[in-house]
């Protein structure tokens, strides 16, 4: 009787193996990759946008800023463009903000950033350069939400990968207060500068006036972990749940005479990687995004 069941079992095993092989072929890539060739060019007095050689938008005016990856999604399929009416006008009232398909998001914009996913855009408009404040807004799902009119123009503007959480600083009289918005406004504390924020503020990275770097869950400072002082560079995975970074090490006399590399996982305490970081070796085609000062995400 055992022989009667031998072939069905072998067939079942073969089906499982075949399914596993197919899944390994079609499963999503572990690393983010560029999915399109997106080009933004100036043609006389018109900004021309093409994706994979096909024109998607013509915008009257002159491209002010879509430089680097601050203006593009990680997969290079979405972008934002600041446009001025006259070349090098230095317009203190700001510029028009457009998407890669020619849709205008807002006018009077002085700075903007698109998320890694391309699903969210944070921008600042109606700036008061004497008071160094402006109105911070978040554009997602075709809708603009005003977050604060006290955004600190001299601070960092940080978006989460999915574009639904934004970290920033505000001016409160003479104090600088760090906050994040995820549908509601949360304060992180005085004299802090946000560096990176994960989706839903699961992990918030920041440094204080002493240049000491920390990570904590949301606004819960009781669970913060110190990463180091005078951190030199920070490199995150796509979810911002892990960070590799370098920091100087002080000797007994308080002088920084060497540099070490560390890793922090899931907001936890740092671990020494026993070496000096020189860069990641990633698979061919891996997209990288320098979306904030001294921060690289891949």
The helical percent reads under 10%
Give the tally of β-strands: 24
- Main beta-sheet annotation: 7 strands, antiparallel
Which word captures the global form? globular
* Rg result: 23 Å
Number of helices in the DSSP assignment: 1
Report the average pLDDT across residues.
82
SSE order, one letter for each helix or strand: HEEEEEEEEEEEEEEEEEEEEEEEE
**Which strand order does the major sheet show?**
4-5-6-7-8-9-10
Q: Given the helix and strand composition, which structural class is it?
A: mainly beta
* Multimerization state: single chain
Strand content: over 45%
> Separation of termini?
56 Å
Uncertain residue segments: 1-29, 290-298
Could you characterize the architecture of this molecule?
- The chain is mainly beta.
- The termini are far apart.
- Mean pLDDT is 82; it is low at 1-29 and 290-298.
- The strands form five sheets. Strands 4-5-6-7-8-9-10 form a seven-stranded antiparallel β-sheet, with no helix packed on it. The chain has a six-stranded mixed β-sheet with strand order 22-21-20-19-24-23, with no helix packed on it. Strands 11-12-13-14 form a four-stranded antiparallel β-sheet, with no helix packed on it.
- The chain has one helix spanning 6-26, and strands at 38-43, 46-51, 54-60, 62-65, 80-84, 95-99, 104-114, 120-128, 133-140, 143-152, 158-159, 166-172, 175-181, 185-190, 192-197, 204-208, 212-216, 225-229, 233-236, 242-250, 256-265, 271-272, 289-292, 295-297.
């Amino acid at each position: 009787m055992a022989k009667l069941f031998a072939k069905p079992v072998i067939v079942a095993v073969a089906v499982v193996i075949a399914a596993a092989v197919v899944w390994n072929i079609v499963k999503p890539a572990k690393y983010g990759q560029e999915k399109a060739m997106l080009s933004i060019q100036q043609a006389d007095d018109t900004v021309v946008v093409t994706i994979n050689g096909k024109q998607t938008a013509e915008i009257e005016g002159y491209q002010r800023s879509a430089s680097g990856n601050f203006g593009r999604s990680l997969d290079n399929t979405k972008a934002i463009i600041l446009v001025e009416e006259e070349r090098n006008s230095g317009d203190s009232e700001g510029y028009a903000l457009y998407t890669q398909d020619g849709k205008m998001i807002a006018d009077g914009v002085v700075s903007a950033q698109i998320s890694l996913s391309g699903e969210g855009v944070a921008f600042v408009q109606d700036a008061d350069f004497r008071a160094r404040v402006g109105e911070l807004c978040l554009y997602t799902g075709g809708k603009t939400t005003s977050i604060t009119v006290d955004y600190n123009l001299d601070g960092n503007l940080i978006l989460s990968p999915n574009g639904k959480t934004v970290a920033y600083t505000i001016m409160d009289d003479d104090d600088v207060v760090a906050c994040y918005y995820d549908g509601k406004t949360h304060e992180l504390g005085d004299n802090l500068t946000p560096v990176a924020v994960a989706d839903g503020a699961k992990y918030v990275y920041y440094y204080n006036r002493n240049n000491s770097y920390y990570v904590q869950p949301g606004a819960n400072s009781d669970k913060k972990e110190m990463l180091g002082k005078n951190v030199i560079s920070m490199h995150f995975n796509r979810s911002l749940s892990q960070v590799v970074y370098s920091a100087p090490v002080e000797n007994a006399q308080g002088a920084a005479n060497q540099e070490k590399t560390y890793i922090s996982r899931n907001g936890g305490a740092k671990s020494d990687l026993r070496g000096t970081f020189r860069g990641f070796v990633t698979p061919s085609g891996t997209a990288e995004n320098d979306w904030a000062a001294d921060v690289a995400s891949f």
